[in-house]
Amino acid sequence: MIHPEDDLRVPPKEYSSEHLGVTRTAPLRARLDTGGARCALGEARLKRSVRKLLVGVAAVAAVLAVGLATTTVVNVVASEGESSRIESYGQRVAVDGGEMNVLVTGAGPENVVLLPGFGTSSPVLDFGPLVKDLATDHRVIVVEPFGYGLSDGTDRERTTENIVQEVHGALEALDVDRYTLMGHSIAGLYGIEYANRYPGEVTAFVGIDTSVPGQPGMDTEFPTGLMSTMKNLGLLRFISALSAASDLSGYTDHAREQMQMLSNRNSLSPTYLNEMGHIKSNFENALGTGFPKELPLLLFVVAENKQNPEWLELHHRQAANVSNGTVVPLPGEHYLHHTHAGEIADGLRKWEAGRG
Q1: In the prediction, which pLDDT does 241 show?
Q2: What is the pLDDT of residue 247?
Q3: Hey, which of 61-70, 215-224, 341-350 has the most confident mean pLDDT?
């Protein structure tokens, strides 16, 4: 009698060689052995590939770490060296617990107060050729807001209202109370608030490719945290060296060097980044605002703005909203005073003479 468990001891039946030429069990074992070998080989290759990838990533990370460490050290050393080479100019006046730097030069029956565009490293040096021309028959006052040029930084929020108040405080300290307000870029936005807040002092506004409420692209949120990290790592200095302004032919080598050093110091400073962080809200708050109806307005504007084809028309509409508005298109780029200082100065004189 055969017990059931005896079946487990019965060898498996084999096919004869005349049917298949091989047994049934042998090829199955061979296939399993071959498959296992292939699997082991594939796994080994995968492990080697992963190891190579990790080694590559580690190598790249090491190179980046060394590179960033180098740029950080270079930035610290260079900044310390440049701080002693930056030369003073103008004079400092007390404003809201800090000191703002201003330049007063020239003589004439009219005062012209110059305000910079956002992030200008040194307003006094940047406006240099224009100031030199205007100062032959005007008293020119260049104000460097907090965070600009040689002025202190500040912890106050960079709202339009605060910036306007501080600029006015600097002029009060100088006993300047009647003037043509003249500004570049974002000073057009601040100028609207300024002219409406101090109508008894501002006799006219002159814009140099100035910002306009409602202009496109001002709803951007800037990555200020990332930018601050870039400066601390020394990447800003590296990028700045590669993208130096190409429209400064009218400036001396010394002036360009000073402007570059001040740019390295002031760009992406806490005050700079705070103002950048307020650009969106400052433009939002300016929507629907404009210069006082009776304030004479002269706007020098880039004739062809490829990024914003409506740029010139925006300024024509702004000028049409006051009783005496004039737009002067000029060829060139945003910093028109770099390349057209003489034309801007002469254009102002002609406009002033026409107003009588």
Answers
A1: 60
A2: 77
A3: 341-350
Entry pTM: 0.76
Q: What are phi and psi of 253, to 5 degrees?
A: -60, -40
In this structure, are residues 127 and 116 in contact, taking their beta carbons and an 8 Å threshold?
A: yes
Q: Strands, E, within the chain: which ranges?
A: 91-95, 98-105, 111-115, 139-144, 179-184, 202-208, 297-302, 325-330
pLDDT band at 320 (very low <50, low <70, confident <90, very high): very high
**What's the chain's average pLDDT?**
83
Strands of 152-238, DSSP E: 179-184, 202-208
Provide the b/e sequence for 222-249 (b: ≥16 CB within 10 Å).
eebeebbebbebbbbbeeeeeeebeebe
The structural domains of the chain, with segments of one domain joined by +, span 91-355
- The tokens of 100 are what? 């703002």
CA-wise closest residue to 141 among 209, 212, 201: 201
Supply the pLDDT for residue 74: 46
| Domain covering 91-355 in this structure, CATH number | 3.40.50.1820
Dihedral of CA 50/55/60/64: which sign?
A: positive
CB 135 within 8 A of CB 163: no
CA 200 – CA 110 distance, rounded (Å): 15
- Mean per-residue pLDDT, 335-344: 98
Give dist(CA 295, CA 205) in Å, integer.
7
Across-strand partners of 144? 101
Give the H or E element holding residue 134: helix 128-134
C-alpha 263/C-alpha 147 separation (Å) is 11
Beta bridge partners of 142: 103, 114
Provide the H-helix boundaries in 212-340. 224-232, 235-242, 253-266, 270-286, 311-320, 336-339
Q: How far apart are CA 65 and CA 92, in angstroms?
A: 42
